[in-house]
Amino acid sequence: MSNATRTFVLLGPLLAFIGLTYLVPFLGVMRWSVTLPEPGLGQYQAALSDPLILSVLVRTLRICTLVTLFSVLAAYAVTLIWVRGSPAQRLAIELCILIPFWISVLTRAFGWLALLSNRGILNEWLQSLGILSEPLTLVRNEFGVIVGMTHYLIPFAVFPLASAMRNLDERALMAARGMGASRARVFRNVFVPMTAAGILGAALVVFVFALGFFVTPAILGGGRSVMVAELIYLYIFQIPNWGLAAAVSVILMVAVGVLLALLMRVMRPPVPR
Amino acid sequence: MSGGRPGRLAALIAALVAVFLLMPLIAVIPVSFTPNRYLSVPSGAWSLRHYRDLITNPGWGQAVWLSIRIGLLSSVVATTLALFFSLGIWMLRPRFATVLMGIALLPMVAPPVVSALTLYFLLVSLSQFNSVVAYDTLPGVALAHAVMIAPFAVVLITVALAQVDRRIDLAARAMGAGVLTRVTRVILPNIRFGVLTAFFLTFVLSWEEIGVTIFVTSVNVITLPRMMWMGLRDNIDPAIAAISVVLIVIVVTVILAKTAVQILQRRRSARKTA
């Protein structure tokens, strides 16, 4: 076999597959965005000036920022114990990360409904104790979306943080201790800065994931706090305006592309050598 | 901190996060035993009616069987394509490997909703030419799933290949082995665990897939997640709690069994070295 044939046989199938089933259709979506209902950039203009769409974009950014902040903070504490705790602590944390990670996003969103909805466990309990007379509205609003998304995304923040914490040079910590720094000071001034790349990587992964999220906001937001992914769904299936849906998708793709380029600079891509 | 264990405060916060992570999974259990037809906590009388529902309503069984078939079909296609591709990158080290890898991983890194719309476009377009691989058909959904899960197989097989010692392949080559022999007799035996993991993970990803499935199905192809989705949107059906408990029990059993096996193996190897 010549080298060219080998390249063709080995690399060709997957590249042709992704090309035909993903790249070409995405070009089709881009074409929708500039041809439906009429040729031109009207849909982009509409997407960036319509107050409804703008409010959805602003809400999406706000929710994604908060979710990123909460999940990375929570993941940092968990990863610290997972990487540096006692064997028993490590095992317990590992199970608490892996079990939710393997459970379907639908089950996890449903779990929050069972816990937080008006007739859910928390409200029933608080009412039976006489603390509340009226149930608290904890889902079908932005609060529910943020709780559910944070829950979904914590494991995704744990993995980049864990690799940063595992690869750090132990001697720097010992040197700082040896020079008389307190444990808290070593953590704040040495450990955290040394894992900064991991923190940034985790934040970007979570933020990018959160931007295109569809299922959790749709279930826990209950149609009241629509995010950009649900907006695209609505413009395809409920209020047909395919051109606008396509334009919003292209904008989202560009935004994520820019963020991923940043991510590539922070962390090395998974390419073999 | 230096070389030592994290402090009490870190352990306390981590414990709180752990509770947060497990809470919604535990909350599903009491709700699944409610005697009512709406989402509620059973007060007094517990009932198995929603579990009975899973057996008596043929829709659930059909959805499970459909999800298994779509999962097998799409994971076989995705793993095979990914295996060829990863072998190609590893053996040939082409120029622009980073770019090729980027193309292969695109469906994984693009926002899920953009992928969903893209695959909706693909299947709606294909529907104009044929009725087999089309919108709302089993082969169509399997195709869409294969696109979404193939990048994960590429990552796993590439990671497995990165662990292989290149010198054994060089030795085989120096002894005159052709490409086919090198792949089947030298490389594949060394990465078989990675390939099996890729197959298993892609199957699970297809089994759970919902974001794209919502866009490419309507009434004919109701996978298990699609059926759960319908029961979650408007009036919440407590049968979702029952099926959720079943799924959670399966996942927890598998993970605990795997952890127990690992601990036993570690003890055994520790005893050997001692």
What is the topology?
The complex is a heterodimer of chains A (273) and B (274).
Chain A: H1 3-35, H2 42-49, H3 51-84, H4 87-102, H5 105-116, H6 121-128, H7 142-166, H8 170-178, H9 183-194, H10 196-211, H11 215-221, H12 228-237, H13 242-266
Helix pairs in contact in A: 1-13, 2-13, 3-4, 3-7, 3-10, 4-7, 5-7, 5-11, 7-10, 7-11, 8-9, 10-13, 12-13
Chain B: H1 8-32, H2 49-56, H3 58-92, H4 97-109, H5 112-127, H6 138-162, H7 166-174, H8 179-208, H9 211-216, H10 224-233, H11 239-273
Helix pairs in contact in B: 1-11, 2-11, 3-6, 3-8, 3-10, 4-6, 6-8, 7-8
Describe it for me?
- The complex is a heterodimer of chains A (273) and B (274).
- Chain A has one domain: Orthogonal Bundle (MetI-like fold), CATH 1.10.3720.
- In chain A, 79% of the residues lie in helices and 0% in strands.
- Chain A has helices at residues 3-35, 42-49, 51-84, 87-102, 105-116, 121-128, 142-166, 170-178, 183-194, 196-211, 215-221, 228-237, 242-266.
- Chain A is globular, with a radius of gyration of 23 Å.
- Mean pLDDT of chain A is 88; it is low at 269-273.
- Chain B has 274 residues and is an all-alpha fold.
- Chain B has helices at residues 8-32, 49-56, 58-92, 97-109, 112-127, 138-162, 166-174, 179-208, 211-216, 224-233, 239-273.
- Chain B is globular.
- The model of chain B has no long low-confidence stretch (mean pLDDT 91).
User: What is the residue-averaged pLDDT of chain B?
Assistant: 91
Strand content of chain B: under 5%
- What is the CA-atom radius of gyration of chain A, in angstroms? 23 Å
Q: What structural class is derived from the secondary structure elements of chain B?
A: mainly alpha
In angstroms, what separates the terminal alpha carbons of chain A?
A: 24 Å
By CATH reckoning, the class of the largest domain in chain B would read Mainly Alpha
Question: What's the CATH topology name of the largest domain in chain B?
Answer: MetI-like fold
> Helical residue percent of chain B?
over 70%
User: What is the number of domains of chain A?
Assistant: 1
Question: What count of helical segments of chain A does DSSP give?
Answer: 13
Number of strands of chain B: 0
Form type of chain B: globular
Number of domains in the coordinates of chain B? Answer: 2
- How many beta strands in the DSSP annotation of chain A? 0
Characterize the largest beta sheet of chain B: strand count, sense, and whether it forms a barrel. Answer: none
Quick one: CATH class of chain A? Mainly Alpha
Helices and strands of chain B, in order, run as: HHHHHHHHHHH
Runs of chain B with pLDDT <50, length 5+?
A: none
Give me the CATH architecture of the largest domain in chain B, please. Answer: Orthogonal Bundle
Order of helices and strands of chain A: HHHHHHHHHHHHH
Distance between the termini of chain B: 30 Å
